[in-house]
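Section 5.1 Outputs to date
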Amino acid sequence: MTRPAPGIRADYRHFLAIPTRWMDNDLYGHVNNVVYYSYFDTVINKFLIERGGLDIHKSDIIGVAAESGCRFHASIAYPETIDAGLRVGHLGGRSVRYEIGLFRAGTDTAAAEGYFVHVFVARAEQRPVAIPDRIRSAFETILR
């Protein structure tokens, strides 16, 4: 099986610097694989709050995780700061597929790449609904 080549910074539309923490490292001296998903959550949710106007405590409509995945290309370790690149790979009526690239400082090739699918739901009923206009507009600015 041939592995796809890692993506590059120019493939992504939005970036957030995320410092690694001492507790992110595992016994092998690099960031543990599960922590990469927390970086995905961080760049996505900060984007939703700042650019999409999401109020994580009060919004009637929220995104819930439906699917995720990650491909690892190179190790990241504390005390590095990573640049999390974000783009929208697919924008549907009720769901979005985010694509994320994690880059070590000063590098143009992704150390890891992943995706995350959110389905938007009414908070109270937990039933799928249309993506709110303000959030959809924000997504369109980073659409692949």
